[in-house]
């Protein structure tokens, strides 16, 4: 449990600082025109505790149960274990994750249900993409007592990858925002110099589209479709 708690602590740190862009200290600091969110210590404590006391014991018990499945051939055994893991355990743990997340946030039962319904499909589909192949390797080659560590290592790696692409996207967003500011200034200068002529708006529109695209991508990375709490919870708890 201590190892699992440590992995969750590390994963949450990567999620908060790398994916969500949080910083230690006051959230008065600004990144351009956007407030930089403050490090959420309560979330760190929550996920570390959940990882060590809830998800790790559940996952350990499940892996032990699935390991008891024995069919006539190794291939059939692997297929049966994988099917059970992805079709029973996967939906269960995604629901538990988002449900417990809502409860810990102090939401009402109706709000918790809404949260689960909103995030479930996206989280489950992505978990299949990440942990389907992981579990094939896990069940086929990894001893039982190392399987949970493999899952959590993959989850940590997923968060590190999200952190990397988020930082790349932030650089793209910064360049796009600078291009937009230059395009708007250039358009204003042309309009002032030639008030009788119609000034083309195409450059500004292209720059605005680039900014919107980068902002949308950042929200997908940080939000329920792949980053932040999802990276720590469902991708570490499987």
Automatic annotation (TrEMBL):
Q: Which organism is it from?
A: Vanrija humicola
Q: Name one Pfam family in it.
A: Mpv17_PMP22
Query: Where in or outside the cell is it found?
Result: Membrane
Family, according to the entry, reads as follows:
Belongs to the peroxisomal membrane protein PXMP2/4 family.
Keyword check for Transmembrane helix:
yes
Give positions of region: Disordered. 218-238
Q: How does this protein lie in the membrane?
A: Multi-pass membrane protein
Put simply, this protein is called Uncharacterized protein
Task: List compositional bias (Gly residues) regions by residue number.
Answer: 224-238
Q: Which PANTHER family match?
A: PEROXISOMAL MEMBRANE PROTEIN 2, PXMP2 MPV17 (PTHR11266), PROTEIN MPV17 (PTHR11266:SF17)
| Primary site of residence | membrane
Q: Does the keyword Transmembrane helix apply?
A: yes
> Which keywords annotate this record?
Membrane, Transmembrane, Transmembrane helix
List, alphabetically, the InterPro entries matched.
Mpv17_PMP22
Q: GO CC terms on record? A: membrane; mitochondrion
